[in-house]
Each structure stands twice: as C-alpha cells, then as structure tokens.
Write a structure and sequence with these properties.
The structure holds 2 protein chains of 2 kinds. Chain A is mainly β. Helices cover about 0% and strands about 45% of the residues of chain A. In chain A, the strands form 2 sheets. Chain A has a 5-stranded mixed beta barrel with strand order 5-6-7-9-8. In chain A, strand 8 (about 110-120) and strand 9 (about 125-130) form a beta hairpin. By secondary structure, chain B is α/β, with parallel strands linked by helices. Chain B has a single domain, classed as Thiolase/Chalcone synthase (Peroxisomal Thiolase, Chain A, domain 1, 3-Layer(aba) Sandwich), CATH 3.40.47.10. Chain B has 13 helices and 12 strands. The longest helix of chain B is centred in the last third of the chain and has 17 residues, at about 335-350. Classes of the chains: A mainly beta, B alpha/beta. The interface of A and B includes residues 31, 71 and 118 of A. Strand 7 (about 90-95) of chain A pairs antiparallel with strand 9 of chain B, so a sheet runs across the interface. Chain B: Pfam families: Thiolase_C_1, Thiolase_N. Chain B: One of its GO terms (molecular function) is acyltransferase activity, transferring groups other than amino-acyl groups. Chain B: It comes from Goekera deserti.
C-alpha cells in the first residue's frame, strides 16, 4: 500500500499513524485539523498537538451513493462505505470507518488506521480512518 | 398594524420542481409579476429590491426584464439562509425609511442529484472531498442518529414526518412531490445514509418566490389582509455547534445557530413559541425537521415522538408544520426555499392557503431555515384579527 497521504498536514506521523491537531495555549481547546487561531477564544497562540489514536464512535452512517467529483471512486467502482465522528475525548474527528454496518454502534471502541484512497489526480493515496477494536485490545 | 411595522402585502410563486428549458431568471420573473399583481402594484412603483440565488444567475439582472427604472437592487447569497437574509435586508430598508415599497425575491434551478460542494469555497482542503466526506446527506444522517440516541426518538417518527409532508404536498397545487407515501412506504424505501431513507430526503429542485413589502401605514391600502413581519433574524454558528462540513468538532456539540436565531426572533417579536399556530421548519430531511422542532423551541427535546404520533403537526393539529409539504414535497431551490416558507405562512394567516388551510383563523406564524456552514434565519409573522 502506498503511504502518500491525501493531505500530509493531517498527520503527525504515518508509522504509527497519528493525527495532527492543534491546542490553544490560552484556553486549551483542541482542534482538528490544526488551526492557526482558536475557534473558541479567538486566541492566536496555538500549538501543534498530536491527537489520541483511540476513541469511540459518536455517530455514524453509511454512504450508499457515489459522491459527486472531486471525489473519485476506486478502481472497480464505488462501493458503499461507513463514515462517522469518533470521540477522542478532547475533540471529535470525522473519518471513514473501516467496518461493516453491523459492527457499528454509538460508543463502539475504534482505533486510527490508514485506508487506501484516491488522490485528486487519481493517484493512489492513503487517508485517515478508524477501525473497530475488541474491548480491552 | 402600526405605521412603522413592516408587512407583506403581496406574494407570488413559481411552482417548485423540475422545469426543463426554463432558467432561474425565467422563474423569478414569473414570481415577481405574480407578486406585483397580488399587491396590485407595478414594477415602476417599487423603489428597492433585494434578490437571492445561490447558483443560478445574478438576481439584479432581472431589471432588464422587469423594467430599467434605476432602483437600488441588493443581491444576497447566503446558502440556505438566502431568503431570510434577503427578507431582513428589505425590512431594514423599510424601517430606516430608505424605501416605501420593496420587492424581495429568491430563485434557483439546481441540477439533478445531491448538491456538489467545492471544499475551497468552505475553506477546506481538497482532501475532505476526495475522502468522500463532503456530502451534506451524511451530516444529516449522523446528526439524526445521534439525536435519536440522546433523546429516544424512533425511526417511525422520522417516517411520520415524511409521510405528513407528502400528504400536505399532495393537497398543494404548486408542490412537486404529490404522492402521499405512507409511513410504511417511507421506511421501506432504499436507504441513502442510514438511518435516513430515500423518501426521508428532499431533492435539489427549481423554483422562485417573490414578496412585496410595505410599511404599516401603507399596508392596509395595498392589501385587505396584510401580514406583519414581527421579526426577522439571522445567526451564524457559535463554538460548540454540530455543523455540516466539519472535519473536527468540539466534544458534546449541540449549540446550533437555529437555537440562537429562533430565540432572537421570538424575543424581538414578543411572541412565545407556544403561541405559534402555523410553522415552517427546515426539513431537508426528516431528521432535520425532528431536530429543528426542538431547537426552535416549538417543542421539548424528545417530545416529537408523541407529538407526531398524535398528529399534532398535521394541518388540523395544535401545531401545524410545513403545511405546503415543506422541502420534502417541494424540493429545495436554495435561494427560493426560505421565501417559500414565508409565502406559505402569509397565505395561511390570510386564510387563503393554496393547499390545505389551517382551520380556526391562525394569527401567529413562524419560519426557520438552517444551512451550511452553520447559519440559520427565522421569522415571526402575525396577522390582526379580521
């Protein structure tokens, strides 16, 4: 699998995968993607912040129709995929969920993974996603 | 009606739906001429205009068709709040006595299928769309599922909302979707974004609406039953709201701009949500109406289940909602949709609804729109006793 990210700025590291957020030096608010000012207190002192790689499903759905461009379906055509918000405690992150619908429920534990994606120019890439983990794993 | 009130004295609407070969400007012209006829005035009498379209042309170019009178014409483009912002702009012009007779119009003629969105226009990276995340229907589905989880509302309640919208649409001559799908048929239609099914979503459509506004001191001369715009408000999101096109969110995100816009509208009008006798709330999907009924203060969170089961939101219920079928039955031409709501509520308060009329002579109405990227506009409308 290629390890060219769709957007390098989203990642603090790729191996192991960790997402790059930001944290306000004044009020502590955590933002994803990393912001240049704080959406809560409007402060401009924001620091790089590595997000937790585990959380729980806050809400989810299944994308059952092919989104319009610039989304490009993978080779072999569009297949429905799950999407959700993952509660990392300090922030919720929207991401694709590498799971079948029957594996998903609000509160289900998940961990960050890389998932194959199609770049803007059609080139193979990876994006951030979350996958279910067994309790205690 | 007080002299410095602002009132709707005329309305016109081009039927919503799909109209191949007709442009947004074509439909807007039809709506404006109908509104002028309704008010019994001519375009030459109008001394200020405000128009909105999200994607279908320049509203101010309509002067070439309606007459080159030299009037000031403000163009508004505020997504789903376009109609509300156009209305607010017109009201302030009348209140500040910069105009005596104002036309407000909105139109759009969207292509088939779900809305396409440009990430750069929302300040988002291309990756967001490339990942398949930039889809409004996903957001509505995830908001609905979370709301159901927190407030214990069933999928049947979602179906009841859609089924009532299609019943109302079936009775309305300008609605687009006029098949009265049953709750069972709504639930059995193909899933689009679980838990929302095909018949729980509205589609982008085409249409136009125009209103003629005047101050209270002239309203009675122009219209036998003028309707007062008691308040028109608009708000953007605050920190901690759960919004469409959000790659990340603050924990426990619920503080919606709908809450702020509705509270301000009721306060400014001096009307309580419980006083509302006919309402329009944004129903781009069943889940949105479900959430907005409570966010606007029209009911308590979680109370929707029983209200819907009791038929309270039907035309003959205690809180008639989306009496023309709303977005679900009319589709959503974004620039026109908010003004469609106002047009329908005005007709209801005048006792001359084109579709099913709310019985008993309603006197207090309310409208609400919500859209990307976290905006809401609300209005309270009142009518004097006949």
């Amino acid at each position: 699998m290629t390890t060219t990210p769709l957007e390098p700025a989203l990642f603090a590291s790729l191996d192991p995968p960790r997402l790059a957020g930001s944290r306000c030096a004044d009020c502590g608010t955590v933002t994803f993607p990393a912001a240049t000012s704080c959406p809560r207190c409007t402060g401009q002192q924001v620091l790089a912040h590595v997000l937790p790689d585990r959380g729980t499903v806050w809400s989810w759905t299944v994308q059952r129709f092919c989104p319009k461009p610039p989304y490009l379906p993978p080779d072999g055509g569009f297949r429905p995929f799950a999407v959700g918000y993952v509660d990392l405690g300090e922030v919720l992150v929207e991401a694709r969920l590498v799971a079948e619908p029957e594996q998903l429920s609000i509160g289900a534990p998940v961990r960050l993974v890389l998932e194959p994606a199609v770049g803007v120019d059609g080139a193979p890439a990876v994006g951030h996603a979350f996958a279910p983990v067994a309790e205690g794993a | 009606m007080r002299a410095d009130d602002v009132a709707v004295v005329g309305g016109g609407l081009h039927a919503f739906g799909r109209h191949e070969g007709r442009t947004g400007l074509d439909m807007a012209e039809v709506a404006v001429r109908a509104a002028l006829d309704d008010a019994g005035v001519r375009w030459a009498d109008v001394d200020l205009a405000v128009g909105g379209s999200n994607v279908s042309g320049k509203p101010d170019s309509l002067v070439a068709r309606l007459g080159l009178t030299g009037l000031p014409f403000t163009t508004v483009r505020n997504g789903c709040a376009t109609g509300g912002v156009a209305l607010a702009t017109a009201v302030s012009a009348l209140q500040s006595r910069r105009a005596e007779l104002v036309v407000v119009l909105g139109f759009d003629a969207h292509e088939r299928g779900a809305f396409a969105a440009d990430p750069a226009a929302y300040g988002l990276g291309e990756w967001y769309a490339s990942s398949g995340l930039m889809v409004t229907t996903q957001y509505f589905a995830m908001r609905t599922r979370r709301y159901q989880h927190e407030h214990g509302v069933s999928d049947l309640a979602l179906a009841r909302i859609a089924s009532r919208a299609f019943r109302n649409g079936a009775a309305h001559p300008t609605a687009w979707r006029r098949t009265p799908w049953t709750e069972e048929e709504v639930l059995a239609s193909a899933p689009v974004n679980d838990p929302l099914t095909t018949y729980m979503f509205c589609q982008p459509s085409q249409g136009a609406v125009a209103l003629v506004l005047a101050r209270g001191d002239r309203a009675a001369d122009l219209c036998p039953r003028p309707v007062r715009l008691a308040s028109v408000t608009q708000r953007t999101r605050r920190f901690g709201s759960f919004e469409v096109f959000s790659p990340g969110l603050a924990p426990d995100p619920w503080h919606s701009p709908s809450v702020d816009a509705a509270a301000a509208a009721f306060a400014e009008a001096g009307v309580a949500p419980a006083d509302v006798q006919v309402a329009q709330v944004q129903d781009t999907d069943s889940g949105s109406e479900l959430v907005h009924l409570a966010e606007t203060g029209l009911c308590a969170h979680g109370a929707q289940e029983q209200l819907l089961a009791d038929g309270a939101t039907d035309v003959d219920g205690v809180l008639p909602v989306n009496t023309d079928g709303g977005c679900l039955a009319n589709g959503e031409p974004v620039g026109a949709s908010g003004l469609r709501q106002v047009h329908e509520v005005v007709r209801q308060l005048q006792g001359r609804a084109a579709g099913a009329q709310v019985p008993g002579g309603p006197r207090v109405g309310f409208t609400h729109v919500y859209g990307a990227p976290g905006i809401s506009a609300c209005a309270v409308l009142t009518a004097d006793a006949p």
